[in-house]
């Protein structure tokens, strides 16, 4: 199982998006997100991934409903998207990973095709959840660690 954490960052009815450079999704738009590292808190992973992919420092403000997806490679992926506010906007990114970072109008995003938007169904649902204000408190992620 793989856990993916990232952000849905909305300002002035626009969403901060990244255009992917990876071969499997080259040129598709996505929310800034990536894998949670071993022993990393999911909230820390979201902040790190947003920074790595956009150069922006953010403060998480809530969490959208969590989605589970089975990928073609047989791996189950848990997708967690946090809402966030920009603390410091300094757009910069690794061009081997990201082609472009851009604020995209929500309506334009909702009108994108499956070829334009990575993980189309999941990402459209994240936008719908955001618009429907299905945003939950960050406190649902406790800080306690348990040794097993």
What attributes characterize this protein structure?
single chain, 148 residues, alpha+beta, four-stranded antiparallel sheet, 36% strand
Description:
With 148 residues, the protein is of the alpha+beta class. The protein contains three helices and nine strands, in the order βββββαββββαα. The protein has helices spanning 42-54, 106-110, 120-131, and strands at 2-8, 10-11, 14-20, 29-30, 33-35, 57-63, 67-70, 76-88, 98-105. Strands 1, 5, 6, 7 and 8 form a five-stranded mixed β-sheet that branches. Strand 2 (10-11) and strand 3 form a beta hairpin. The relative contact order is 0.25. The model has no long low-confidence stretch (mean pLDDT 94).
In a few lines, what is going on in this structure?
By secondary structure, the protein is α+β, with helices and mostly antiparallel strands. It is built from three helices and nine strands.
Topology:
Blueprint: E1 2-8, E2 10-11, E3 14-20, E4 29-30, E5 33-35, H1 42-54, E6 57-63, E7 67-70, E8 76-88, E9 98-105, H2 106-110, H3 120-131
Parallel strand pairs: 1-8
Antiparallel strand pairs: 1-5, 2-3, 3-4, 3-9, 6-8, 7-8
Series of secondary-structure elements, N-terminal to C-terminal: EEEEEHEEEEHH
- Contiguous helical run count: 3
Shape by Cα distribution: globular
The end-to-end distance, rounded to whole angstroms, is: 18 Å
Classify the beta-strand content into a percent band. 35-45%
Q: Largest beta sheet, briefly?
A: 5 strands, mixed
What fraction, in percent, of the residue positions are helical?
Answer: 10-25%
pLDDT average, as an integer? 94
Using only C-alpha atoms, the radius of gyration works out to: 15 Å
List the uncertain runs.
Answer: none
Structural class: alpha+beta
Number of E-state strands: 9
């Amino acid at each position: 199982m793989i856990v993916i954490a990232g952000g849905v960052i909305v300002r002035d009815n626009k969403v901060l998006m990244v255009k992917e450079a990876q071969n499997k999704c080259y040129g598709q738009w996505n929310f800034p997100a990536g894998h949670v590292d071993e022993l990393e808190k999911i909230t820390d992973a979201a902040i790190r991934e947003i920074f790595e992919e956009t150069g922006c420092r953010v403060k998480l403000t809530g969490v959208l409903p969590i989605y589970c997806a089975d990928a073609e490679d047989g791996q189950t992926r848990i997708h967690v998207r946090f809402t966030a506010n920009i603390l410091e906007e300094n757009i910069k990114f690794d061009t081997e990973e990201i082609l472009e970072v851009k604020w995209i109008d929500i309506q334009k995003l909702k009108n994108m095709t499956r070829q334009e938007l990575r993980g189309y169904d999941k990402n459209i649902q994240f936008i719908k959840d955001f618009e429907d204000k299905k945003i939950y408190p960050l406190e649902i992620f406790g800080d306690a660690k348990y040794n097993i």
